[in-house]
From TrEMBL:
Residues 29-136 form the DUS-like FMN-binding domain. Coiled coil: none annotated. This is tRNA-dihydrouridine(20) synthase [NAD(P)+]-like. GO terms for cellular component: cytoplasm. One of its GO terms (molecular function) is tRNA dihydrouridine synthase activity. It comes from the Eukaryota.
Length: 143
């Protein structure tokens, strides 16, 4: 399971050690908050992307989620206690999707990595997004 380090909102994957994924001369869908959801990622794959990033998902919220196999949609859903689906993925992107986690806590990051590892191709750590909505406490706590 490759784990990358993305220190700021910059082109992703720079420090990622790749096992199954190659980051040389590829077309990738960048991580984008509120954009990089499953429909967008599948569309990007349809249009030729080699690798697709999830939006940045915050560890505090993800750590509270449980994994649900959604047999209606044929997806795997990570569902928060308030029933919101925080991350949805599926078999078609399994070898191509990089889960980007926003974290500043190694223990919590490990919990979340373990939660999603069987469903994604790689995990990218974003620990320095400077965007205002990422640094607001309300966003980090998901409230
Ligand atoms: C709407 C939007 C949301 C973004 N969200 C993230 C994010 O969640 N994580 C991240 O690392 N970068 C994020 N970025 C930065 C992009 O991934 C990308 O690095 C940046 O847009 C520069 O890409 P470019 O060099 O192809 O223009 C976001 C950018 C935009 C426009």
């Amino acid at each position: 399971m490759p784990v990358g380090l993305n220190r700021k909102c910059s082109p992703p994957g720079g420090a990622m050690a790749s096992v199954g994924l190659s980051f040389r001369n590829i077309t990738a869908l960048a991580p984008m908050v509120r954009v990089g959801t499953l429909p967008m990622r599948l569309l990007a794959l349809d249009y030729g992307a080699d690798v697709v990033y999830s939006e940045e998902l915050i560890d505090i919220k993800m750590a509270k989620c449980h994994r649900v196999v959604n047999e209606v949609l044929d997806t795997v859903d990570f569902v928060a206690p308030d029933d919101r689906v925080m991350f949805r993925t599926c078999e078609r992107e399994k070898d191509r999707v990089v889960f980007q986690m926003g974290t500043a806590d190694p223990d919590r990051a490990l919990v979340v990595a373990r939660l999603v590892e069987q469903d994604v191709a790689a995990i990218d750590v974003n620990m320095g997004c400077p965007k205002e909505y990422s640094t607001k406490v309300s966003f980090l706590l998901g409230t």
